[in-house]
């Protein structure tokens, strides 16, 4: 593709530290979103410039912005790690191809990468976190081509929608692998109505789970999950973790399920209450897989793991080598994304962050499209 049609700079919405306020003034938010121009970088061999079609807003982005969860690269930086787009410059063999940019870009040379744990490579780069100033809430991003996932030209799902494959869909798949999920397993998903949980339910059924119990706090959202793999919804609204466990056991009795052993529990909510609930449900020969991140600590009697012969596992991201399979399942619509994604222009990023932070966007993942970049005024 001719360099003459490339932009003179990358348009990016960056997370910038807010200016200090007077001591007697109300405390301002720690960061603001500001539109800035970044110079086009020189591309090394094996690198490409991707024109971004869409970038999903993840709970992690909101955690960085609102909750003070630290990023590796210090602000100003461009958030966003759920990216799809088209290669427009760089490696000639990739120019013109439609791609998904993996959330995690491993080094491929360390011991963890060699041991098959590339998703936890300690030298990994993550757009919107540890990738210098670059991230997905922008017009373009420079990336290594080594781990790009090509989207077939005949794909019928719009490219911008496929941005969610990079994290919302891929991370639950990796969680399923970490759990050893197999046909006939019984599964509990805590936080099933969230952006990760609804895909965890789909993967569990696709991979052969016998029964999926979905736990959430919104009755309306819970009812919708039954169209996406949840067999038995269980409301946690107004209930303590102990009360949820009591209701879980009652639900199992009604459906002739053994509540005492063998459940694989996926904690997707990233909340202290959700994590406490998952641990409260853990019983004999069971497993809790922690997928959501919470900055809040909690206590747990570890000897229960011994007594239960149970397991507690963490999982992080998804290695790029799994993306082609994950994308194929999405394109075949065995994993459904169309009803669960909404597109907005990127110049609405400020109001969208606020709506998501206030939980006013329902169950749908919001993907921002750079085609809508404007002057950022509101």
Would you give an account of this structure?
By secondary structure, the protein is α/β, with parallel strands linked by helices. It is built from 10 helices and 15 strands. The strands form 3 sheets. Strands 3, 4, 5, 6, 7, 14 and 15 form a 7-stranded mixed β-sheet that branches.
Q: What keyword list fits this structure?
A:
10 helices; seven-stranded mixed sheet; six-stranded parallel sheet; alpha/beta; 15 strands; globular; 378 residues
Lay out the secondary structure.
Elements lengths: L8 E9 L13 E9 L7 E10 L2 H8 L15 E9 L7 E4 L9 H4 L25 E5 L4 E3 L18 H10 L6 E5 L6 H10 L4 E6 L2 H7 L6 E4 L5 H14 L8 E5 L4 H10 L5 E4 L12 H6 L2 E4 L8 H9 L9 E5 L3 H9 L7 E5 L9
Parallel strand pairs: 8-9, 8-11, 9-10, 11-12, 12-13, 14-15
Antiparallel strand pairs: 1-2, 3-4, 3-6, 3-15, 4-5, 5-7
